[in-house]
Amino acid sequence: MTRRRWIADETSGNRAALVGEHARHLAQVLRAHIGQEFEISVEGHVRSARIAAVSPERVEFELGEAVSTFRDFPITVAISVFKFDRMEWAIEKCTELGVERIVPLIAARTEARLASAAGKRVDRWRRIAHQASEQSRRVLLPVIDDPV
Fold first, then answer.
1. Three-state SS sequence of 7-25
2. How far apart are CA 10 and CA 51, in angstroms?
3. Which of 60, 91, 100, 104 is such that its CA lies 20 to 30 A from the CA of 142?
4. What is the 3-state secondary structure (H, E, C) of the chain?
């Protein structure tokens, strides 16, 4: 059975932690408990991990041995900014396919209101990429540039 994979928010030696929204989801929604095992992506490597402490705002892991993984290809995708619901879908799918970098472009035919609002949506796009990375068991997050 495959273990769920998380991307660590903090690391220190043989310990890693999830904080904020990730910790809240793991602790309250998934009802994590001490001793439960997961895989944690730490600094570009995946390691097995066992929960050492759980609170609603922080889940700490004790890291174990390295897990072999498939590395992503160094692919960059430039996407012209278009309707935001479809843009979010495209970012999610590019992330799941293993794209390393996503560059949102303001093209000549991009609607003016979408172009002006694109800068405000970058944080949301990064959150979507983070969630898609964990769901697709990626080792590293893709880089999402500011609109160009």
1. ECCEEECCEEEEECHHHHH
2. 14
3. 60
4. CCCCEEECCEEECCEEEEECHHHHHHHHHCCCCCCCEEEEEECCEEEEEEEEEEECCEEEEEEEEEECCCCCCCCEEEEECCCHHHHHHHHHHHHHHCCCEEEEECCCCCCHHHHHHHHHHHHHHHHHHHHHHHHCCCCCCCEECCCC
Task: Answer whether 0.90 is exceeded by the pTM.
Answer: no
Contact 148, 119 (CB under 8 A): no
Nearest-angstrom CA–CA distance, 32 and 56: 10
**What is the per-residue pLDDT across 42-67, written as a single tens digit (0 to 9) for each?**
887 888 999 999 999 999 999 988 88
Nearest to 7, CA basis, from 115, 127, 113, 141: 141
Q: How far apart are the first and last CA of the chain?
A: 42
Residue-range domains of the chain with CATH: 5-67 (2.40.240.20), 76-144 (3.40.1280.10)
